[in-house]
Design brief:
about 220 residues, 2 domains, three-stranded antiparallel β-sheet, Macroglobulin domain-containing protein
């Protein structure tokens, strides 16, 4: 494996390809880096991206991200063209819910939403199961960290959390004709723990069927 060393120049762009920030970061001994950046309060919502360039070379790449805003209150207002209020006017509006992924503020190590395997990533992934190779488990306990936060990322204490783990697998059987078949089976485990405002709490479980796991 060949490691890369040097300095990465990166530029953050908004949804209209407007430049928001520019900085540099030095690669560590493993040829990796970690950055955090804060978007302006008046940034346009949509798809932004970061462009990374390895200085003294022609290597560059882009990483796309979504710019979203959480709103817990919604209202509307109507006015006449001359500026007066419209009393008793009919207003029609539609509110729709959609599945998304959410990371609390200051808790960048956690992501809530659809399951995503660490073996494969796609920004369009909408799977409800996580599929892992069996070699990652081998009947060993799996440690999972759990946090409960408010919208600002502050940890909340004493909240009961239930984790349902469903393992999927197959076993060899014979059908009525004496032919060998593989029958799908599953193993269900329910784990509970109480959250803490001091940090993440651990949930440990041992998968019995590891063809696929559904959390």
């Amino acid at each position: 494996m060949m490691l890369t060393f040097g300095v990465i120049d990166y530029i953050i762009y908004g949804s209209y390809s407007e430049q928001l920030q520019q900085s540099k970061v030095e690669l560590n001994n493993y040829g990796a880096f970690d950055i955090h950046f804060t978007l302006p309060d008046n940034v346009n919502l949509g798809n932004g991206y970061a462009r990374f360039t390895l200085l003294d070379s022609n290597s560059n790449t882009k990483h796309y991200f979504q710019i979203q805003e959480f709103r817990n209150r919604t209202g509307c207002e109507g006015k006449l063209f001359v500026g007066g209020c419209l009393n008793g006017a009919y207003v029609r509006w539609t509110v729709q819910a959609a599945t998304t992924i959410f990371t609390p503020a200051n808790q960048y190590g956690y992501m809530f939403g659809r399951a995503r395997s660490f073996c494969y990533y796609s920004r369009y992934d909408r799977k409800t199961k996580i599929l892992y190779p069996k070699k990652y488990f081998q009947d060993e306990p799996v440690q999972t960290k759990v946090i409960v936060t408010d919208i600002d990322g502050n940890l909340i204490d004493n909240i009961l959390v239930r984790c349902d783990v469903i393992g999927y697998g197959s076993e060899i059987k014979e059908d009525q004709n004496g032919l060998t078949i593989f029958e799908e089976i599953k193993d269900e485990q329910t784990l509970t723990i109480v959250s803490s405002n001091k940090g993440a709490v651990n949930i440990a479980y041992t998968p019995k069927l590891v063809k696929g796991l559904n959390f």
